[in-house]
Amino acid sequence: PRASFAETVVDRHAGGRSHPELLFLGPDENIIPEDIEWIYSEARRRGHPSPASFMSSKANAGINHKTYGVTSEGVAVFLDIALRRCGLHPSETGRPFTVKLSGGPSGDVAGNALKVLHRMYLGDEGCKVVGMCDGTAVAEDPNGLSWSELLHLVNSGLPLAEYDTNALSPTGVLVLTDNNPEGVRRRNTFPLKVRADAFLPAGGRPGTINADNVGGFFHLADDGSDRKVPCCPLIVEGANLYITPEARDAMWRTAGVTVVKDSSANKSGVTTSSFEVLASLLLTEEEFVDHKESIVHGVLERLREQAALEAELLFDEREKSGMALPKISERLSAAIIRLHDLIEQRLHEGCPDAGKEMWQRAGVQAALFAHLPEGVIRDMVKKEPERWDAVPLSYRASIVASRIASRAIYSNGLGWAERVESDDALMDAVLAWVDAA
C-alpha cells in the first residue's frame, strides 16, 4: 500500500535518526498526481526536514513530468540526432521522415512526443506519423495520420479510440481493440509489421519485442533477394524495457538496426526530478512558485543539452568501434559510474574539512555552480552563495562527481576513461582535465 511505503521512507528522514539517509522519490508508471500530492503532504505533516524536495513532479512547487513533457523532450533530441547520423533527417533527404509510436495520445511520453515532434518538424513538412497504437485502438495511415486530430486527442486527454475516422486518408484504418480479436491482433503485431523510418516505443509492456518474435520485425527485400529488411531501421526507446537485450542484438546482427537504448534515450524524466530536488533545497516553495516558468525553461534547456552531448558521443563511438549503440550505452554508464564513484570518494575524504585540497580546487567549485540550470536558480545562488548551506555536503559531492564524470567523458571520449586501468591514474587524469578546464 502506498501509505505504509511512503510513511516508512518519511520516518527514516524525520524519525530522529543520528545519520538520516538522503532519500528522494520520483514518479513512475501507475503513480497518479493524487499519490504525488499525498506523499508531499504526508512528508510535511510528519516533519520531514525538506518536504518539497522529498517527492518530485509536484503540480505546484515542482515540475510535473507530463505537464512539461520532460521525458519526451530528451527522447526527441536523441531521435533528431539519430535521424541525422542515419541519413534520414528531412533537412538532408528533402522529404518528411515517417514515424510510428506505441502508446496513446493521452499518455505521458507518447502524447508529449507528438507535441514535440510537431513543434520541431512543423507537422507534415518534416514528419508523418504513419501509425500509433494504445490499449484502445490501432491507427495506421501510410499517408500520415492527421496532425490536427492527433493533437486534439493529446490536448483533450483522449485515447486513440476517439480518433475521428473522417481524418483518415483512403488508405488509413482505425481498428478498435475492445471486444475485437482483429484489433487485438493488429495491436500485438503493430511493433513488428507497420513500416516507418523510425519507431518510438513510448508505451507498452516490457519485453514486447523479444527473442521469440523479433524475427517478425523483418521482411524480405523488395528486390527479390533473400536479404532481410527491418520494418523500421531506427528505434529510439522512450519506454523502458520494451525490447529485450536478445531482440536488440538480433536487430543489429540481422540488419544493422539502430536502437537507442532506454537508459540513454528516456532518462530526462529522472534528470528533471534531480533538478527539482535541488531547486527545492536551494529555494523556498514561494520562490519556486514565483519563478516557476523561468526554472522550468532552464531545466528544459539543460535536458536538451545533456541529451545532445550523450547522443553525439554514442554515435561517435559507434563510428570508431562498429559496435551496436546499446552496448556502447552500457559501457558509457559503467565508465561514468566508475569515475563518479572515484571522484565522490575523494570528495568525501574532504567532508570533515571543506578546506581540504579537493574542495579547494577551482574546477570543483566551478562544477558545482555549472550544474545549476541557467536562469533564476543560478542567479539566486550567485547572489547568495550561502544558499548551498541548505544542501547536504554529501549531496553536493554527488553533484560535483556526476558533473565532472559525465562532462569529462563526453569531452574526451569513452576510450579516454576505459584505457586507464588504474583508479589512481584515472583520478590524476580527470583532475588534470578539471584544472585545465
What does this structure look like?
By secondary structure, this protein is α/β, with parallel strands linked by helices. Helices cover 55% and strands 8% of the residues. It is built from 21 helices and nine strands. A seven-stranded mixed β-sheet has the order 4-3-2-1-5-8-9, with helices on both faces. Helix 14 crosses helix 15 (325-349), helix 15 packs across helix 19 and helix 17 crosses helix 19 (393-412). The mean pLDDT is 93.
Please describe the topology of this protein.
Layout: H1 2-14, H2 33-45, H3 51-54, H4 65-68, H5 70-85, H6 90-93, E1 97-102, H7 108-121, E2 127-133, E3 137-140, H8 147-156, E4 173-176, H9 181-193, E5 198-201, E6 218-220, E7 228-230, E8 234-236, H10 245-255, E9 258-260, H11 262-265, H12 268-282, H13 285-290, H14 292-321, H15 325-349, H16 357-360, H17 362-370, H18 376-383, H19 393-412, H20 414-418, H21 423-436
Parallel strand pairs: 1-2, 1-5, 5-8, 8-9
Antiparallel strand pairs: 2-3, 3-4, 6-7
Helix pairs in contact: 1-2, 5-7, 5-12, 5-14, 7-8, 12-14, 14-15, 15-19, 17-19
